[in-house]
Amino acid sequence: MNNERRTNRRVPLNLPARYDGLSGMHEARIEDISMGGCFVNTQSQLEVGEAVVIEIKLSSKWIQLHGEVTASQPGIGFGVIFSLRNERDIRSLELVLRSQT
Q1: What gap in Å lies between CA 80 and CA 78, rounded to an integer?
Q2: DSSP secondary-structure letter at 89?
Q3: In total, how many domains does the chain have?
Q4: The pTM is what?
């Protein structure tokens, strides 16, 4: 039986990132990403439902995306579903995905 809930193909990667949540700005790494969300590797713990702003570093440029924490694994990281607010957000995410293919 397949319990996969994702509808978008995940792209594995390892990019520097930072995120801003209720506890402030933290350094992290993005482990995988899709048009729907990503997994953020970090030691910090976030709560499911918490709003976050994630910045992903591509070369010398930071790509900013908004989302909500959907899963949290203390000491490992957290999963995020993106809140793509406008066409600019979609283009930014597509840029990250294209950089990995």
Answers
A1: 7
A2: H
A3: 1
A4: 0.85
CA neighbours closer than 13 Å in the CB half-sphere of residue 45: 4
pLDDT tens-digit readout, 8-40: 788 899 999 999 988 889 999 999 999 999 999
The CATH number of the domain holding residue 45 is 2.40.10.220
Which pair of tokens denotes residue 72?
A: 């949290």
- Structure tokens that stand for 60 in this block: 């010398």
Percent helix, strand, coil in the chain, to 5, is: 15, 50, 35
Domain-located, residue 21? yes
What is the phi-psi region of residue 14: left when phi exceeds 0, alpha when psi lies from -120 to 50, beta otherwise?
Answer: beta
How confident is the prediction for the chain on average, in pLDDT? Answer: 88
Yes or no: say if 7 and 35 are a contact pair by the CB < 8 Å rule: no
Give the residue numbers spanning the domain of 23: 12-99
Indicate the Cα dihedral angle 30, 8, 67, 24, nearest 10°.
-10
